[in-house]
Amino acid sequence: MGGGDRHHLLRDRHPHRRPGAQGPHRDGRVVTTPLPATPVPAASGAGRALGRRAGILGAAVGVLAAGAAAGVAIERMTVGRAFRRRTEAQLDALAEFGTLRGEPHLITADDGVELYAEVDGDRDAPVTVVLCHGYCLDMDCWHYQRAALRDEYRLVFYDQRSHGRSGRGAPETSTIDHLGADLYTVLGELAPEGPLVLLGHSMGGMTIMALADQHPELFGERVIGVALMNTSAGRWATVTLGIPAAGARLVHRIAPGLLRTLGRRAALVEAGRRAARDLVYLFTERYAFDSEVDPTLVRFTDRMISGTPIDVIAEFFPAFETHDKLAALPALESVETLVVAGEGDLIAPASHSEAIKEALPGAELLIVPDSGHLTPLEHPEVVNAALRGLLARATSAPGGRVGKSGGRGRGESSAPVGFDAGRDPDGE
User: Which of 1, 203, 251, 335 could form a disulfide with 134 if both were Cys (CB 3.0 to 4.6 A apart)?
Assistant: First the structure.
């Protein structure tokens, strides 16, 4: 995972760092220390004992095991309710996070689930960038990337099934392979021609790997660039989650069954999540970010995670335990690839990004210091600069320039994608 001695969970982090300092990583890579933000406190809460226990238990397992907190940043537990209400009012007044909107679309997946999507930019733009969000988030998690790139590229955003504004899928479709099939459908509807760059965070990165597994022919012809951020190609069940190995093994062993049980008691658990907000905050603060962030960003991410029902969290969790797409990575060898990791990410440790880099020697690996699982939100300047570099390389590299045919400049037309059912996501 990288990094030296870990800071204490409740202490201010890295007070000795000079803002904006740059320096070499211990293995020679140049890394940037982003500017620190304002510390974020949080409040106390109360509720009925039974609901509180269910909420704490559900939150702890969801956060530790699957990244239910992969999308959640929370206030610290030192300030009262009045501060929290003031922060929420400030967020509403700013009307910034979550308000960047594009042309809306409803896309029907192969099993009838309606996927909500939005498009920014000109349909005739030379490159379409498709952004795939992670577990318990929605398309608005790309706020900083959307603001930075929307005037330069055609951008396609969509909510994964059972997330955000998209329709609810059947429990048995809560798999990485179904997400890959959904991405293929989105491409067919909203980007049937022309070169593509795919960006994926966490579960969104796994979605891109599933697409590469199902349709490797797209990579190098239609897909000219890929960014895999805070994600894993497999062996997630070995992640220690920042706790002793024995405890991590226990979490991985009991979490699927426990989450299924909690999912069947969704109403009780949702009430418990509200009553136990402060303890939930304590868990999620550790697993979402590795530096202090602005309180408006805290409330924004809190709202995204709060919109994910406990039964959706429960249905998707087994997908991470069984996820294994290492064999699909060679399909990316022919495209420009960027791999981004947070040095302090406990959900998808940097070692998993290093494993992806090992499978793709030509990929660029960026390990961001003082960053947890939400690197695109936590350090947007660093991520956006890396994405601009990826896009520049993908569209101008020898043998990879965007041609009039929409292919990779090889003098031949590339066939549109997405007009057939493709491979069944269950392999049948």
Answer: 203
The tens digit of pLDDT for each residue in 275-292 reads 555 545 555 556 667 688
Lowest mean pLDDT among 24-33, 306-315, 316-325, 332-341: 24-33
pTM: 0.71
Q: Rounded to whole angstroms, how far apart are CA atoms 287 and 142? A: 19
Alpha-carbon span 250 to 400, nearest angstrom: 47
pLDDT tens-digit readout, 40-63: 334 444 444 444 444 444 444 444
Q: What is the distance between the alpha carbons of residues 293 and 74, in angstroms, rounded to a whole number?
A: 9
| Helices 266-275, 49-61: crossing angle, 10 deg rounding | 90
Rg (CA), the chain: 21
Q: What is the pLDDT of residues 6-30, one digit of tens each?
A: 333 323 334 333 333 334 343 434 3
Quote the crossing angle between the two packed helices 277-288 and 266-275, to the nearest 10°.
80
Structure tokens at 99: 């308000």
In angstroms, what CA-CA distances link 372 with 202, 276, 292, 343?
12, 23, 11, 7
Whether residue 320 contacts residue 210, with contact meaning beta carbons closer than 8 Å, is answered with no
Query: What average pLDDT does the segment 132-149 reach?
Result: 96
Residue 105 contacts residue 117 (beta carbons within 8 Å): yes
**103-236+330-396, CATH topology level:** Rossmann fold (3.40.50)
Sign of CA dihedral 193, 199, 202, 208: positive
Nearest one of 13, 142, 130, 1 to 71, comparing CA atoms: 142
Strand ranges inside 17-82, DSSP E: 22-24, 30-32
C-alpha 284/C-alpha 297 separation (Å) is: 14
